[in-house]
Amino acid sequence: MPGVEGFMYPNEVELQWSVLIVLYPFITGLVAGAFILASLERVFHVVTIKPTYRLALLTALSFMLVAPLPLQLHLGHPERSLEMYFTPHSSSAMAMFGFVYLWYLMAVLVTEIWLDYRKDIVEMYHKSTGLLKMIYWLMATGNLNISPRALELDDKIGYTITVIGIPSAFLLHGYVGFIFGSIKANPWWSSPLMPVVFIFSAMVSGVAAVMLLFMAVKKLRKEAIDIHCVDTIAKYLFYLFIVDFSLEMLDLIHRIYEADESFRSLDFMVHSRLFFSQIVLQICLGTLTPILLLGITQLFKIRAGIRKAIYTTSGLLTLMGIFAMRWNVVIGGQLFSKSFLGYTTYKMALVTKEGLLVAIALAILPFIFLTILVKLLPPFGENDAHHAPQPAIGD
Amino acid sequence: MAIFKDTGHLFRFAALFVVGTTSIFVLRAIVTPKSFGQYGHYRGAALKDLADRPVKYAGHQACEVCHTDIVTTKTAGKHAGVNCEACHGPLAKHADDPSNTPAKLDTAVLCVKCHAASAAKPKGFPQVQADDHSGGLACDTCHKPHDPAIAAGGAK
């Protein structure tokens, strides 16, 4: 049989989870990571990264809006795939999606953004005209009270929401990791470390994405990049990456030492079918290279221009590495037979509902949402002296 | 009222939440089939739907009423335990109306479904690399499908 080596059970030959299911944990990871970066400023008072606070929240929301689309396309049946939001159930991890998604989207992200932006929304309502005025009026729920007492209340509640949001972000991505980690029939996935590895890789990807977006948005707006802010984000990215890499290596060492009955099969897979995506893309280019590059910026004094180039390169490599990690988990876990006697091949479709073109469209969609959100809710405080952009330093 | 003076917007936002949550419960009630949970965590009416589907398989007893000669050959051979419809496919229509004859099977395709060589099959199970073994010829060129062992006198 073409693409099949050795023995596969009939239901293993064709992969059920496609590139869209690779995209799903990648996107939710970006959401969780971006939110956690935002919470650093709000809860842990890391003032240097304040310029990215709102951008991080809007990034999280943009990706969160796209997060369920891969699942719905995978489910097919547009007439009933929406039911996954209305009929969540505790009987299975997958059926919990409705609870996890709606809680995180509505109770955390939307509420926090609304409370943080309310003053701006009211001010923009007063400045705007026509349809835009109506949109801002709706966003303000028709209440235009921005008295100091009302804003103080917003701030207090916003803080509480952020505090609740941190475990919620962990829950969201830990949940995605749990879906894989709890499948005991699949030795490639089954590991209690899986949710933890997913959470840390989520933080790494989210922080890298916001760092890149921050630099890109500033570049597009022809504004100076606050290099101290980017330096701080890069420092957190470096630390998070080390923890993430250590956890992944711990998982790997544990598997190698334990060497259970699946080990030879999985080991062969890593040396053959997954060699490029795991060893080359994920570990060498997507993990070790950015850690090395970020490490250099921590150890040596480097000019700001070169630092920015290093951050951009390591950010892009990080995102590629984390995507490769999701790919190796989702696709890798379906390439070998549960008999450990054979391997199949994933052939990505191009124009089907789970094909490459749809995956590319879904990867672009959050940026369209983000552009609209940034226009509607400017993240750099154009309407608020309190959020005025910091003068560029070292640029 | 004084309490609403600076908290009015929060009550409005909370009201939106209540509306949203309520609409989820309403939609849930609408989309959940009426018989869901009647017998367990599934749609109770699904049982009747399944029972109402037309029967496709006749069962080997139905075949054996007419094809007594095949029964004799098959009982003596290695395929004695293989049901007729495992190879011939669902034949309820043929059993109801014998003039509705099924298409002749292509043994070059059919036999390898079980007998293609595979590392996972028990060593004693007859299995072949079809291309090497027959060079593309149909299996029933040499084997009688109802009593396939050549050594047992199954050759044509």
Oligomeric state of the chains? heterodimer
Report the top-level CATH class of the domain at 20-252 and 353-387 in chain A: Mainly Alpha
Distance between the termini of chain B: 101 Å
So how many helices of chain A? 14
- Outline the low-pLDDT stretches of chain B: none
* Proportion of residues in helical segments of chain B: 40-55%
CATH architectural arrangement of the domain at 20-252 and 353-387 in chain A: Up-down Bundle
Report the portion of residues of chain A in β strands. under 5%
Helix content of chain A: 55-70%
Strand content of chain B: under 5%
Q: Provide the residue-averaged pLDDT of chain A.
A: 91
Total domain count of chain B: 3
Measure the end-to-end span of chain A.
Answer: 59 Å
The run of helices and strands of chain B is HHHHHHHHHHH
Give the overall silhouette of chain A.
Answer: globular
What does this structure look like?
The complex is a heterodimer of chains A (395) and B (156). Chain A has 395 residues and is mainly α. Chain A is built from 14 helices and 2 strands. Chain A has a domain at 20-252 and 353-387: Formate dehydrogenase/DMSO reductase fold (Up-down Bundle). Chain A has helices at 19-42, 53-66, 69-75, 83-86, 97-127, 130-139, 148-181, 193-220, 227-258, 263-271, 275-299, 304-330, 332-335, 356-376, and strands at 5-6, 342-343. Chain A has a two-stranded antiparallel sheet. In chain A, α1 (19-42) runs antiparallel to α3 (69-75) and α8 runs antiparallel to α9. The longest helix of chain A is centred in the middle third of the chain and has 34 residues, at 148-181. Chain A is globular, with a radius of gyration of 22 Å. The model of chain A is unreliable at 383-395 (pLDDT under 50). Chain B has helices spanning 2-5, 8-31, 45-52, 60-66, 68-76, 84-88, 92-96, 107-110, 112-115, 130-134, 150-154. Chain B is mainly alpha-helical and 156 residues long. Chain B is built from 11 helices and no strands. Chain B folds into 3 domains: 2-52, no CATH class; 54-103, Helix Hairpins, CATH 1.10.287; 104-156, no CATH class. At the A-B interface, α4, α5 and α7 of A face α2 of B.
